[in-house]
Amino acid sequence: MKTYKGRYKPKNPEKYAGDVDNVVYRSGWERHVMKWCDDSLDVVQWMSEELVIPYICETDKKPHRYFMDFVIKYKSGRVVLVEVKPHKQTMRPERKQGKSRNTLLNEGMTYVKNQSKWKAASEYAKDRGYHFEIWTENELTAMGIMPKSTQRMRTKKPLKKLPPFRKKKK
Q1: Would you call 21 a catalytic residue per the annotation?
Q2: What pLDDT was estimated at residue 146?
Q3: What pLDDT was estimated at residue 94?
Q4: Fewest CB within 10 angstroms: 69, 100, 130, 170, which?
Q5: Residue 47 in contact with residue 71, Cβ under 8 Å?
Q6: DSSP H helical segments within 5-136, as ranges?
Q7: Residue 62: its pLDDT value, please?
Q8: Which one of the listed residues 35, 50, 85, 133 is annotated catalytic?
Q9: 79: closest CA among 127, 41, 130, 126?
Q10: In the CATH hierarchy, which fold is given to the domain comprising 6-150?
């Protein structure tokens, strides 16, 4: 999915638990979650990137700040901290033919950093009786949050590259 940023203006500003004039999304998927939170009758309150969780990153052993993508409070009283990520970023990176050493190293560092964040978020949530969840395109689709028109189209095989067109000499 194409990544893009923008501002979201809640239709139900009374449901937004932060600065209603500064609701920013950093991907289309986050925008879909915002719209879903805004429209859902089961969601009584939500906020985006308003909760900051301190954590120690395993890559450098230094303190950092994790801005939680979403905090969602449901009618039932259940509170969920939500991270929105592509599924491939939740998996340990694999060494594949054609992947450069730098790419593998960057993916590995990102994976370790995300694991550090998610461990801190999980502990933060548990300490408060909340839940921590990671929503990928799989969860967004299953929950009906991501419209079918924006779901990634998958082809079985890439198309063959055709040779350049050349006119025959007479």
Answers
A1: no
A2: 87
A3: 85
A4: 170
A5: yes
A6: 28-39, 101-128
A7: 96
A8: 85
A9: 130
A10: Trna Endonuclease; Chain: A, domain 1 (3.40.1350)
What pLDDT is recorded for position 154?
44
User: In this structure, are residues 16 and 46 in contact, taking their beta carbons and an 8 Å threshold?
Assistant: yes
pLDDT at 4: 79
pLDDT of residue 98: 83
Residue 26 structure tokens:
């950093």
30 is annotated as an active-site residue: yes
Active-site hit among 15, 30, 49, 117: 30
E strand segments, the chain: 6-7, 24-25, 43-48, 52-56, 63-67, 70-74, 79-84, 131-135
**Pick the catalytic residue: 15, 38, 49, 69?**
69
CA distance 93 to 86: 13
Q: Where are the domains of the chain?
A: 6-150
* 3-class DSSP state of 126: helix
The low-confidence residues of the chain, meaning pLDDT below 70, are 1-3, 148-170
Contacts of residue 81, defined as CB under 8 A and 6 or more positions apart, other chains included, come to: 51, 68, 70, 71, 121, 124, 125, 130, 131, 132, 133
Cα–Cα distance measured from residue 21 to residue 10, given in angstroms and rounded to the nearest whole number:
9
